[in-house]
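From the pipeline queue, job 12 of 40. The input is one protein chain; the requested action is below.

Action: predict structure.
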Amino acid sequence: MAALDIRRPGVWFGEKPTQPRDDALWVYKNSQEEEKKLLAICELLKMGDFSLIRELQALLFTSSNAPVKELALRLYFGVTDHRGVDFFWDLLKSPDYEAARTFALYAPHSLSPRVLPYLFALLEEFYDSVLRADIAYSIHALYPMQEEFNPNLDLETLRIQYRRASEHIEEGVYYFRGRPAFIGDLTKPLLSAAYQARARGDALKLTIEPTLVSSWSGVKCPADYSTLVDDAGLKQLMDYVSELAAKPWRKGQKYFYNHPIPG
């Protein structure tokens, strides 16, 4: 089985592990290289073993390897529960441009409304930069405050809207696009985008949903943002969605490789 390419991981974190847990743990404990440590942590997480979450946090603080830090952050967003979001208070004390960009890119994968205040803080810090639209989009993807996406959000208005919206957020529930997260609400836009791409003879051009369904299920989505959708590709996606629909999913629950993440 090919190892996950840290620099080009694609829409997921690799195949489901076949090796014993102790083998992955041995690799983590006996490796000096950050990449090998990260891959070992990833393998354990895919098995449903979350015992090295603190080590993943430490890697985000100590690593100077940009691809390692980016994949580690994406992985952390994929597996953290709501309480784990508070870890970012220390990580984002003095964010540079790259740290803010990466955070905004993967923050919606957390599915946790508790990440929104951090995005608001980043939006204020980088409001006059090109990052403003990226951060605003992340807020909109996780919990939209307005019907239409607006990259030029007024910060004070946004905070007022958030305070109103927070009255309707249920404790312990994971959200996507303002609704309790559910696999059907990920696969519907996936299929809709695929039909439109097929009609245009174009690429899928969808970013978050292919990644979330892949990391939730541990089954790789057959299309990503740049995949050209033809008849065969559309059929693959329809079969994929049918496969996912046959599994038991709970609304408001978050998953990583079919393992539920506690609220």
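Job complete. The two ends are 33 Å apart (CA to CA).
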